[in-house]
């Protein structure tokens, strides 16, 4: 899982059924100092995240399980909204 | 899942049965500004995508589930055609 | 699996049920010489690891199995605390 | 899945049973222009590929399914030999 | 799967049960010329590999299957010891 910041969203009409009714958010990875990295990803929201919030994203089949199915075409899901980060190392 | 742009296609006669009858599209990843990155991938179309369209790609077993099977040799599938992207961060 | 060093932790109230009651630690990858690399990850602790300790992290569905379930939304788990490393090559 | 070119092969006597009787080919990834990238991988052939041929490689559990088993230790398989590539973007 | 060279080992007392009794080896990836790359990984040995040997490593759930279980927390396993490599491309 990684930490990223929600920087936008995507609208798509022609899409797989698993994505219908889901919020497709654009998440930009951040480093230890909270600075944005180049890498972005489309993650399906599952916790009510919004733009500007720091979130935790899970990938692979683990993301499908977030939505209660083991045969999901979703491979990236937001699983937490970060309240605070403690760095001491 | 990531956003990319369809930049071409591949023809292959000698191939795994799971790929028979499928459109093998070349997708080039894009960054937050929509600019092409170096990385390309072969993704199986599932939504009628064409060259020049921005698409969302899913990977791993999640891609196999797109085609209704949990034992697919496909590990990369186009699952949406992007209508619009909103970036505010 | 990779070696990293625990450099902090994350607090998140709004999160997936699988993360409730779990320690979300920030792990920074290290190279062969034990030097920190840029890449960080959020890994769920399963062995009582603490800040400053070198740990081994597993990813993907393998991480879900650490917590005894094959449908976990967790894709990254700490599975060992390193006592010593021997390098001779 | 990605496109690569077969640049060699590996011989290994002491190996996992799943690899017995399989051709272990070295595949070097290529970019959109067909130029070789640094990254190489060992992929198990499933379509009769040979050195110098452009191929499509699948990864993860999807690679295991190529050989008809859902518990394979193989995580990388050649699933097609490329006849032609059309790039227009 | 990738080729790497065993460059060391790790000792860990506090660890997941799946790792008990297993050899945790440090594998450094190599490129086509056999030169070491920066990337290292911890892989569980399954073929009696030793320091200085070139090996093939598999990742993900495929690594768990090497040890005969489909719910293993191991996501990286050595599945072959390389006898020889032929490069002609």
TrEMBL record, chains A, B, C, D, E:
It comes from the Bacteria. Keywords: Bacterial microcompartment, Carboxysome. Pfam families: EutN_CcmL. It is found in: Carboxysome. The keyword Signal does not apply. InterPro entries: EutN_CcmL (IPR004992), EutN_CcmL_sf (IPR036677). GO terms for cellular component: carboxysome. This is Ethanolamine utilization protein EutN.
